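[audit] Reproducing an earlier prediction to check determinism. Same input, same settings, fresh worker. If the tokens differ from the archived copy the diff job will pick it up downstream; this log only records the rerun itself.
[audit] input (687 residues):
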Amino acid sequence: MIIPLITGIFLGYTCMQDATRDAAIVLALVSLLAFSFLIVSYKRLSLYRCRWLVGSLLHVFIFLGGYWLTVSFSEKFDDTHYSRQKAEALLVVVKSEPRSSGHILRFESEARESYDLGEKSPSTGKIMISVQADSTGNFDLRYGDVILVPASYNPVEPPYNPGEFDYCSYLAKRQIYYQAFLKQDQVFTIKRNEGNVLIAFALCLRKQLVNKFNEYLRDKDAAAFASTLILGYRAELSRELVEAYSKTGTMHVLSVSGMHVGIVFMVLSALLKFMDRTSRTRLIRAILIILAIWFYAMISGFSAPASRAAVMLSFIVLGKALNRHQNTYNLIAISAFFLLLYNPFYLVDAGFQLSYLAVTGLAYFHPRIYRALYVRNRLLDHIWSYSALSVAAQLATFPVSIYYFHQFPLYFLLSNLFIVVPVAVIMYAGIIFMFLPGSILLFYLGIALSWLISFTNNILYVLENLPLSSWDGIWISTLECILIGLALIFMSLQILKKSDKLIFPAIFLIVILCISFNVRWLANSKLNQIIFYALRKNTAIAYISDHRSVIISDLDKSDNAMGFSVMPAVKSRGSECERFHHSGDTFEDDSYAIAPNFYQFADYRILRWNKNLDKLCFSTILKIDAVLISGSPNTTVENIRASLRFNRLIIEANNPDYKVKKWVSEAKLLNLRCDVLKRRGALVIDL
């Protein structure tokens, strides 16, 4: 049943049309009525001779229902959506725990009413709001607060640079299409605590527990790690620590998800094993485990990964309690079925995909990999079992993981083996710590926790810095991701089933993949491009040629914008070697030369016009290919044209709007080609 549902949801997501929504529900109801009629008339019409007909009608109903549910859930076709209403102000409720970054408070909200000229009307739709708080520190917003804000919002901006993370698409999957940037004096709190009571209690409890970690764990990094590991509170984690866990294949540790809920499940299963004797005690045991799992999900603030894992395990635990021989894959599928009915957009969520792929992979691959090697020693057997677990999870998630994150940790097995015991101990000790009264005990336990967390993180830092710790810069298409997944399935089945027939489709898929990879490699080797990046406050240019790239920027290599906006563009074009220069450097090579305000890549010459050139007098007219206006200089295009001969004007995104508008008008009068990077994306020039 989940196959037609997924197909319908996927079609609804990729071909979302409001006009077809009503037709889909009508056809779905017709197929349901036909299905019901055939069920009632099953014996009379001797339908056992064509049983496929009844099943097909049910599949058609689920498929059309999935399509209708997806289009309806998106909200953007709703007539009461705030973006379709004329309004001066919006009454919204805070739907997520506000996160603070510097003086900026950011949260997700949902519209309730819109106000225009004193008239109010019902309103719907989610909006992402960022509020700049003043220096007094008196601004306090919580989940469930009802606030009045001006109806001043803009569409979420798309990625402006090649390969950049698509934040617009990420929010659209959560049905958020607009965002607002406000000041503190524009936000008025109308009511408190109007959200879901259980979620509000969970977030409040988590906040208290986070404060407890901060109080007794004197090392702030250790306190942030404990809050993240046990409670899923990631607001204060350092970028270096996140990178270390990402590059060593242990990122799942920093997300309260299946692993954490699974640890709680395994501990309780072992403690309550004595209840596994009769059907009644098995059911009581299952209920106790499910309650404990959901309590843990609650103290994590009902985060999406923890709630998803709780739903999945609840179905598995209850199903196995009612029938020991229940099919595990059916239990996994039914949990996914109900989650997709609750929110069809989970299907396109990377976390959802990786969670279910990992669990399915563990159910199928782990016992088979584990049985491939018999180990007599009990300790070594445990190590081998966990190694088989890590290999199974990586095998199942490999295609999707590299598709989304563009890297593969080569030491994932070593990393997971090294941290499995420390992480488990930190979790057990942390859970005891949260509910332990008494300051003296907490003080000494806090010292022990801090030391253990530092020890664990230091192991990861060492592994991160080993040679070839991570295979980085992997960019594959959606089709290649599917082909890799199918090839892995056929290869695995061929090895496990020992069927020679399955090796031929696997070889065929691998050949297709090799051809695809080689075609892209050859295309990238012939690239000879210049990329002018669209950055808000900074400047960056990249020259790409023969799998090598030169990056010139005023950003440091460790800056977030470098990793977020600049590097993906060169990595996605097959760059295997990067060379960095600061904007003011002087350097000359066989293929390029740079000097302050001047760059030459192959035969293409660029002059950067900034404030330093405003009062400079040129003794002769220079001939160049392009002028790059940067840093808000006080000049005119006519003034630039008096000193330079060029055929292309490029205006960077770090210039104010009013100057950009003026320069564009002047360039138009002079019949100059003008490219504006601000809100229009990076410029790529093929040489």
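[audit] rerun output stored. Observation attached for the diff report: The mean pLDDT is 85.
[audit] end
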